[in-house]
Amino acid sequence: MYKHINYLFLTKLPSFLTAYDVERGLWLILVFRVWLLMAEVHIIGQVVGASGFPDQNLFCKWSLHFGGGWQVLEGAREGQTQVDIPYNENTAYWCHPIDIHLTTRGLQGWPKFNFQVWHQDKHSRCELWGYGLCHVPTSPGFYQLECVTWRPLGTLQEEIFRYFLGGGMQLCTPDTVYTGLDRYRFRTVAMGKFVLTS
Predict the structure, then answer these.
(1) How many whole angstroms separate alpha carbon 190 and alpha carbon 149?
(2) Could you give the residue ranges of the DSSP H alpha helices within 50-185?
(3) Which of 21-30, 31-40, 147-156 has the lowest mean pLDDT?
(4) Angle subtended at Cα 36 by Cα 35 and Cα 40, rounded to the nearest 5 degrees
């Protein structure tokens, strides 16, 4: 009978729980066993800042992407920093906190951060200055990660428009940055880098 109940639990969980009140103790034991097999990942850190960009007045949009076997228990999957306007330095400091608690049943689709660095001019117009991708380290510890950024390179006419009018090329589907599909076809220009600590 134990094997039969185990089989019912794996195939029909909701109807099994409502139909049999006697076996709820067994259900709690099975859920506890499944819970022990799930790994948890805590990501605690901050987006420190960025340097090497042509101008200051930068802010960053970030998001965390992972495979289908992962689930967010607590924390935000995406966020945005404030605009830093340094007067005497070439580095923008954000010190934006990141605190995410994940759970998974397997290692496939390990989490990675997708970053977009934006520039705000004196008229409060925003333009995208770089895309970046950073994988979450697979072993616990303290890390300082430097992520380089890039932007798409347009034609000569588009680059002239970008220089005088602002704006510039952007990806039609930003998920190309972290999925890797057709990324080898891009013509890009290296931009600055940003620092992430955990």
Answers:
(1) 6
(2) 156-165, 176-179
(3) 21-30
(4) 80
Helix (H, G, I), strand (E, B) or coil at 2: helix
Please spell the DSSP secondary structure of 39-78, one letter per residue.
EEEEEEEEEEEEES-SSS-EEEEEEEE--TTEEEEES-SE
Look over the chain and give the mean of its residue pLDDT values, rounded to a whole number.
78
Residue 91: CA atoms inside 13 Å, Cβ hemisphere, count?
A: 9
H-helix or E-strand containing 129? strand 126-135
Enter the tokens of residue 41: 């990942």
Q: How many angstroms separate the CA atoms of 176 and 55, rounded?
A: 26
pLDDT tens-place string over residues 85-113: 888 788 889 999 999 999 998 888 899 99
